[in-house]
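Record Oxygenase MpaB family protein, 303 aa.
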Amino acid sequence: MANIEDIVAQPPQSATWQVHLDRSMWVGGVRGLMLQALHPLAMRGVWQNSNFQEDPFGRLRRTADFVGRVTFGSPEEADEIGRRVRGIHKALRIHDPDTGRTHRVDDPELLLWVHCAEVSSYLEVARRGGLGLTERQADRYLYEQRKSAAYVGLHLDDVPGSCAEMDAYFKQVRPILRVTEEAAAAVRFLMWPRLPHELRLLSAGKPVYFPFGALCYYTLPDWARRMYGALPEVPRATVTAALKAFRLGLNSLPEPVHDRAFMPATRRMLQASRERLGAAGYDVSKGLKGLTDPRRWPPKPAA
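=>
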């Protein structure tokens, strides 16, 4: 039987699979972008080096592609996208109008901020939405995500690998965060985005998107919402109930239907992953999500 480490970048028994297969990831992804925007230099890097102003939803889908490949893709696919991302970042620069200085996009401090804002958002939204992870499993998720951070060029030892370490990191970095004009605009875009060309057929339903964008905003940490002040506060219990309902609804969608939200290349990668796992003896009749159930794994060889 093939070694699972040769089939997918992260194994089905990982905490990463439990979090990344949960449909609350869409809320976590947008929340992560909103949180990332509070770092002035990181936000200017996005603003100056991407088409975020025209297509903020596209950035979310590209992030989903990266996360998918370093989770469900083959080790070769994960390594390839890591090289691609590192190559892109290496060539880009950020001009800071406050100081007149130019910074590298692949500055380790900026990469670390983006990573922590992203993975902490995935984890916190999934747990608040009802994914039953223990504290030990939550720590395990962050520990496993150090591998994802290494793909973009960070050193494993520099990346928080537990909830306590992540909390300490945010406490350390908060004094440099602030709401720039770019950050305020980013939050507005994320609550009312322009849809990419291939999703323009959904434009008629765009007003329905605002409650989703607002839900993402309301899942931000209290201190982040106080900084933005973009929407009036609502009771925490109301936000949690809405998040649980959203998660329940999306988790009920069949995997092929849900996959249509991804870019075509991402869909092909996910299908190839299913095929490799099926050929290795895993029961993929319930899709990748079904493999979070150990009963669908191949039986262990007799000793």
